[in-house]
Amino acid sequence: MSRQRRSVAVAAVYLGTFMATLAISIVSVALPAIQAGLQTSMAGLQWVVGAYTLCLSAFMLSAGPLADRYGRKRVWLGGVVLFTLGSAVCAFAGSLTVLIIGCSLQGVAGALVIPGALSILTQAFPDPAERAHIIGGWSSFSAVSLILGPMLGGFLVDQAGWPSIFLLNLPIGAIAFGLGFLSIEESSNPDHAALDPAGQILSIVFLGSLTWSLIKAGQAGWGAFETVVPLIVALIALVAFILVEMRVARPVLPVDLLRQRAFASANFASFVLGFSGYTSLFLFSLFLQRGQGWSATEAGWRMAPVFAAMLVVASCFGTLAKRFGVNRLMVGGYLLIGGSMTGMLTFSSTTSYGAIALLFALLGVGLGLAVPSTGAAAMGSAPRERTGTASATMNALRQGGMTIGIALLGTLMSARAVTVLETTLGQSGTGNMRESAALAIRMNEKPANLAVSPENFQTMLIDAFAQGFTLAATVAGILGFMAALVLAYSAYQGREKL
């Protein structure tokens, strides 16, 4: 491949990743507008984001083997087309059901586009040093989309309505497809591709049932029938999935690779990255708009320090990796994620933006180190002919972490907010208000039966959301510290210098 053609291929892959990543961040600031426009609940918002991440994670394990078997270029281009179609469905959705269908199509397409990017780049750049530089640039481009997403999304929501954030993907998808069609060279390794339809189906059942259970827990409680039954289904599917993967000749989850300490620890870290780092977009948007009362545009700009710091650090990743080594950067990144998220325990409805921006920036530095280092570590520990499977596994665990994180942390945030609001209403002399508090948190409005002035109730509601956020952020931070410990232990056991 000529240098010029390879540069165009890199541009195509970067642009496709930009589009798929933009969908994560741009939707976050539109959630309150979507809730108002479609008259949905907090659980409905979890499904708008969760449908995308659920399909993204559930189908990624299938996407890697498909790319290895039928061609990485062909599968990636198909993903770009499907993502553009899903965006059009979302833009013209007149109900929550249609919007969720569109987000699901985007998720399936993202499963083809995101891991396909790493696989294509790995094939195009066999030299490890050059590949680390390109992957660092890929992470930087992802960071650009994360920066632009909240700011551009907030502006579009306030000026043109929430459907406009999906229309934006239509020209981007067309350009990415054209560049990729002309420049990417086809490659495949069908002899090394997984052939495991039972495992693929069980992984989808597991993630879908678990997500359903976690979201329902926020509405009906942890002991409710609609929470317990899907949770049991998820556990059964998980056990069956593990048994199938241990016995099938070509498992969709590369069990042999996961027996390698470096690959396994990098993939655990990738799960935490999705659970703690990527889920933070969902949490920050709700905190700034619901926990501090900012508009969508204002919230988008206030999230910028996370992504600006991530962009700066990720753009320097190649140079930093040469000087300090990938493992050291990876451990440092997860320590910063853990420290910044647990530090948000101090946030409240009246916390100054200076304090918020500082911790947002520290999180951005951590993400800027963790994203490319985790990708480089995972891909570097897998055979070159299995890059599609390795990339799909790493990204599936990351997006699976985000899916579970949005469901679980969103539920914890809601449950804590309900408890705080109920307590506040009780102190104001309105009696036992558990049901009214739950309704208020779900719909973000004052129930008609509450004898509280709208102004006082709004203050109570904002404070409740803020306290719900601090619990979710603390749980996310603890997992960040756990990932750092696992990575440090793995490096020590492997006698790799930190």
TrEMBL record:
Residues 9-492 form the Major facilitator superfamily (MFS) profile domain. It is found in: Cell membrane. It is a multi-pass membrane protein. Its main location: membrane. The keyword Zinc does not apply. Coiled coil: none annotated. Keywords: Cell membrane, Membrane, Transmembrane, Transmembrane helix, Transport. The chain crosses the membrane at residues 12-38, 44-63, 75-101, 137-156, 162-182, 194-215, 221-244, 265-287, 299-317, 353-379, 400-418, 469-492. PROSITE patterns: MFS, SUGAR_TRANSPORT_1. Pfam families: MFS_1. InterPro entries: EmrB-like, MFS, MFS_dom, MFS_trans_sf, Sugar_transporter_CS. SUPFAM superfamilies: MFS general substrate transporter. Belongs to the major facilitator superfamily. EmrB family. This is MFS transporter. It comes from Paenochrobactrum glaciei.
